[in-house]
Amino acid sequence: MVSSSTFFNPDTAPFLNPKTDRRVVLLTGGNSGIGWFTALQLYLHGYVVYIGGRTESKVLKAIDEIKIEAKKRIEENYSNEQKASRPVGELSFLFMDLLDLKTVNDAAELFSKKESKLHILINNAGLMGVPYEITKDGYEIQYQVNFVSHFLLILKLLPLLKNVAKQGKIEPRVINLSSIGHNFSYRYFHPSNKLNGFPFALYTWYRYGNAKISAILGAKELAKKEPEILSIAVHPGIILGTELYNYWKNMPVIGIFTRGLFRVADATIGVTVEQGSLATLYSALDPSLTIKNDSGKYIETGGKEGTPNRVAKSEKNQETTWDWNVDALHDRGFTW
């Protein structure tokens, strides 16, 4: 396992009282994996958290489990006096299916009716290394789930983020979950390229890299286009304890090899699922981050600043990815 001595400690971040300082977060994929621990810490820190997901029963079950875990941690770690001064936040379910852009659009509109401000948007949910498939919206599946659906959320919710900025006291934040796997995009693949080629296993990872580098490209372009919003892309770490690797672990024959490879990787360069949430939590909660100094950055495992590849750093690629996807969403009837 990677040493965690320099990792961000969420307990150093401010704890809020939602009754007097109500700050709202929308988090996708908060019912499992690193999203679960992200939701847990946001809840412990007094945030009003909406968890976006497609299966209500799974999200509600996760909410119950998060509340139980939060109560346990409070009981174990704080005195009675500290408990009274650290009220928890709120947790709610918001339906959206990232495989269906209409539901993402509807979720954003419903959220906008419930809330007038959005302090933090965390585009966490993802899909990794799955076979080639085209969604009902006409996108390659990894590209839509990892990037396009979240891009639509950003565009639809910009007014609520800007409402926070208008108050002048708090800088709203948008966090895109990327990956070290963005390096599979060794050159710039235009968004129109669905990357369906041979050998199929290799192109699976090209598609994944293209989706994850788009999250970085989008974050960097957002930082330029919306200078009142703190925009960050995150690589959470090598985390083998999530469901993202299940497809490869369960494959006939090759699954034996991949399970062994993952065990070695986990023991040498891996981090726990909870540690994998720390880069996101640093980006969301650390008060030292500012738009002036940090917007557009790429944050790595534990909350350290990293450097994405040259493809991600190209301003031309950033602009092309943004503009093409804006046009593609308009062509599908989505406006904001």
Could you characterize the architecture of this molecule?
The chain is an alpha/beta fold. The chain has a single domain (15-327), classed as 3-Layer(aba) Sandwich (Rossmann fold), CATH 3.40.50. It contains 13 helices and eight strands. It has helices at residues 33-44, 56-77, 80-84, 101-114, 141-167, 200-225, 246-249, 254-268, 273-276, 278-285, 291-294, 310-313, 315-331; strands at residues 24-28, 48-53, 90-95, 120-123, 173-177, 230-234, 298-300, 304-306. An eight-stranded mixed sheet has the order 3-2-1-4-5-6-7-8, sandwiched between helices. α4 (101-114) runs parallel beside α5 (141-167) and α6 crosses α13 (315-331). The N and C termini lie far apart (44 Å). The relative contact order is 0.15. Residues 253-268 have low confidence and may be disordered.
Strand content: 5-15%
* Count of runs of 4 or more consecutive helical residues: 13
* Oligomer type: single chain
Q: Describe the main β-sheet briefly.
A: 8 strands, mixed
Query: Over all CA atoms, what is the radius of gyration?
Result: 19 Å
For the terminal residues, how far apart are their CA atoms?
Answer: 44 Å
Per the CATH scheme, the topology name is: Rossmann fold
* Shape estimate: globular
Structural class: alpha/beta
The largest beta-sheet arranges its strands as 3-2-1-4-5-6-7-8
The name of the CATH superfamily reads NAD(P)-binding Rossmann-like Domain
At CATH's second level, what is the architecture?
3-Layer(aba) Sandwich
User: What is the helix content?
Assistant: 40-55%
* H and E order: EHEHHEHEHEHEHHHHHEEHH
Return residue spans where pLDDT drops below 50 for at least 5 consecutive residues.
253-268
Which whole number gives the mean pLDDT? 92
The CATH class name reads Alpha Beta
Number of domains: 1
Q: How many strand elements?
A: 8
